[in-house]
Amino acid sequence: MKRVLTGLIAVPIVVGIVYYGSPLLFLVFVAAVALTAVYEYFTMIARIGINGFPIPGMVLSFLLLLSFYFDGRFMAEWGLIAGLTLFGTWFIQEDNVKVAIDQIAYTLFGILYIAGLGGYYLLIRHLENGNALIFFLFLIVWLGDIAAYYWGKNFGKKPLAPLVSPKKTVEGSIAGLGGSLLAGAIAGLWFLDHIMMVHCLLAALICGIIGQFGDLAESLLKRHVDVKDSSDILPGHGGVLDRIDSLLFAGPVFYCYFKFVL
Questions:
Q1: What are phi and psi of 142, to 5 degrees?
Q2: Whose CA is closest to 136, among 215, 178, 199?
Q3: Average of per-residue pLDDT across 146-151
Q4: How far apart are CA 208 and CA 252, in angstroms?
Q5: What is the sign of the dihedral through the CA atoms of 220, 236, 8 and 31?
Q6: Neighbours of 254 (CB within 10 A)
Q7: pTM greater than 0.85 (yes/no)
């Protein structure tokens, strides 16, 4: 029930911002979500004794999102700033040379994993009918997650990746792909009639598969730091990173599909 109620509150807000919000408001929304997830990430790795650089990491994450907002025009400059900032931060703190590379590497990984992948939604938003394309992605991931969760919970028997996520099942994964395909068909008939149905279905299938890999990737991270959820900020859903893990992988794949195929 908590899961359903949280969704009933959050989904209209998210859809409203995506469809009717200005590009600047969408940037603020993406930044708020990404920075919350980055903070969760640093909290998680602290459990295994890796004290990354949360404040520089969040600042660099925001700057990376800004670069995406301006169509990636400042990526080279961001790389220079990131390198100087991360190494400079360690030299200022000069804590323990034996974990210096761990701190820098874990911090950079968190930035690229969350802000680097999440920033593609800003690129998609700039495309023609970008708001509809983002809603298409959300629909694919949401229906896929719902189908996988409920079908796997009630009918799942064969583990999908027992070492990473023991509760995920092959049956749930297949149902999730079915949900994503259904979402692609609905979108093609409802609001993406300018795109051929075959592309709607193919993009839904590809993003559905990659989205599940995104889910498993975050499960691997949680297994590594021995936590069930990234946080408890969303009742019934865990943390923000738990909710966007599939979207982080699906967004860049869809952007590439749109640019190189469509």
A1: -65, -50
A2: 199
A3: 91
A4: 13
A5: negative
A6: 26
A7: yes
- The residues near 57 (Cβ < 8 Å, ≥ 6 apart) are 38, 42, 107, 110, 111
Identity of the residue numbered 186: I
> What digits encode the pLDDT tens for the residues 11-52?
889 989 998 999 999 999 999 999 999 999 999 999 998 889
Question: Both tokens of residue 45?
Answer: 């790795």
